[in-house]
């Protein structure tokens, strides 16, 4: 199984928490020139098109492209017969014209950047949409027959109350969607919130409150029929993100676009984050992975999955004994952070809250 990740770095505005590779374009020509070079980069992989099973168009804000710009990109990937084609959408940049373009070219999954349904919180984190825009977008997509819809939510936001979070989760239930990605707010460098933090104007949420909020997220989404299948991801009817599962199981994927990463034929690829450098030559760096690198990645990503990793499969794949290679695993089992169930090594319920303590074992 192989995937294709496509990065659209442009946004109409920059959210206060976001540290992804993004920028507000100066003009339309900047976007058109980028698409020229992006499509050129995509075509470099034409000999691999037949092996690609998932496509993920992320950003930035892919939905800020005009319908004609979207069509240029969609035509470039139309020879690929992928089973899952996802595009990230912001509710405030969605329109029926764009939805029709997605439907026309076989986009069959949408990841909607909701973050919250509370206007006060949305304003605080720098989002420009409203709850009504979210409902309009979801209903419009469903009318077009695009029913595989995921939304992103953020919790542990300063000034966010438990009641606000509970209300957000009730809205998820009301939307009748089949996938939710739910993340705690992380203070990242080079963001507005980080500058506020340095000036003493931003106080991260207490760890205990964050943990309580995560517990509520897990309990409510389970109550609403979602399966918790990865630390931050929940799905109904096994509608998992096939593309993200590539990352978590160390499968090959191609990364194209500004700042994009890829993992192909045991090589990690890194594209330039500077638009000028990217337009000259996309690739910044290629790193051949060692066996140690792959073992580390396999364990850290694989243990994010609630089912964990199969110990026998790991031992055969890497020709090692997992428990001998990392004797500290037994310590984490004794601390009730890890467990072995049906031959799988996995995080315990407690371990889900303290995953980073476990992952440190493999670094």
Question: Can you walk me through this structure?
Answer:
The strands form 3 sheets. This protein has a 9-stranded mixed sheet with strand order 7-8-6-5-4-3-2-1-9, sandwiched between helices. A 3-stranded antiparallel sheet has the order 10-11-12, with no helix packed on it. It has 363 residues and is an alpha/beta fold. It has 16 helices and 15 strands. 41% of the residues lie in helices and 22% in strands. Helix 1 packs parallel to helix 2, helix 2 packs parallel to helix 3 and helix 6 packs parallel to helix 8. The protein has 2 domains: 245 residues, tm_1862 like domain (pyruvate-formate lyase- activating enzyme, Alpha-Beta Horseshoe), CATH 3.80.30.20; 73 residues, Orthogonal Bundle (Arc Repressor Mutant, subunit A). The model has no long low-confidence stretch (mean pLDDT 96).
| Distance, first to last CA | 27 Å
Count of helical regions: 16
Q: Unreliable stretches, pLDDT < 50, 5 or more residues?
A: none
Q: How many E-type strands?
A: 15
The total domain count is 2
What is the H level of CATH, i.e. the homologous superfamily of the largest domain?
tm_1862 like domain
Largest sheet: 9 strands, mixed
Named at the architecture level, the CATH assignment of the largest domain is Alpha-Beta Horseshoe
List keywords for this structure.
single chain; 363 residues; alpha/beta; pyruvate-formate lyase- activating enzyme; Arc Repressor Mutant, subunit A; 2 domains; nine-stranded mixed beta sheet; three-stranded antiparallel beta sheet; 16 helices; 15 strands; globular
């Amino acid at each position: 199984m192989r995937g294709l990740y496509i990065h659209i770095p442009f946004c109409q505005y920059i959210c206060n928490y976001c540290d992804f590779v993004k920028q507000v374009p100066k003009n339309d020509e900047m976007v058109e020139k980028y698409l020229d070079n992006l499509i050129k980069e995509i075509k470099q992989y034409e000999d691999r098109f037949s092996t690609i099973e998932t496509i993920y168009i992320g950003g930035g804000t892919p939905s800020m492209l005009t319908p004609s710009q979207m069509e240029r990109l969609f035509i470039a990937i139309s020879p690929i017969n992928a089973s899952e084609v996802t595009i990230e959408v912001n509710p405030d940049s969605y329109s029926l014209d764009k939805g029709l373009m997605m439907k026309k070219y076989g986009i069959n999954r949408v990841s909607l950047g909701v973050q919250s349904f509370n206007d006060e919180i949305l304003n605080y984190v720098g989002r420009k949409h409203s709850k009504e825009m979210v409902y309009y977008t979801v209903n419009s997509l469903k009318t077009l027959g695009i029913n595989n819809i995921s939304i992103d939510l953020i919790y542990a936001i300063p000034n966010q109350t438990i009641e606000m979070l509970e209300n957000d989760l009730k809205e998820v239930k009301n939307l009748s969607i089949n996938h939710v990605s739910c993340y705690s707010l992380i203070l990242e460098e080079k963001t507005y919130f980080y500058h506020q933090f340095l000036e003493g104007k931003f106080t991260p949420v207490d760890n205990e409150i964050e943990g309580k909020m995560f517990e509520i997220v897990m309990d409510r989404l389970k109550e609403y029929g979602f399966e918790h299948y990865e630390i931050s991801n929940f799905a109904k009817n096994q509608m998992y993100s096939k593309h993200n599962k590539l990352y978590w199981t160390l499968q090959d994927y191609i990364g194209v676009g500004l700042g994009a990463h890829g993992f192909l034929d045991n090589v990690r690829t890194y594209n330039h984050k500077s638009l000028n450098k990217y337009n000259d030559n996309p690739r910044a760096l290629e790193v051949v992975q060692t066996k140690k690198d792959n073992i580390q990645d396999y364990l850290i990503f694989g243990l994010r999955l609630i089912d964990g990793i199969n110990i026998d499969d790991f031992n055969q794949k890497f020709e090692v004994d997992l428990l001998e290679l990392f004797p500290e695993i037994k310590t984490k089992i004794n601390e009730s952070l890890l467990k072995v169930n049906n031959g799988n090594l996995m995080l315990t319920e407690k371990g889900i809250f303290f995953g980073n303590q476990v992952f440190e074992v493999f670094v």
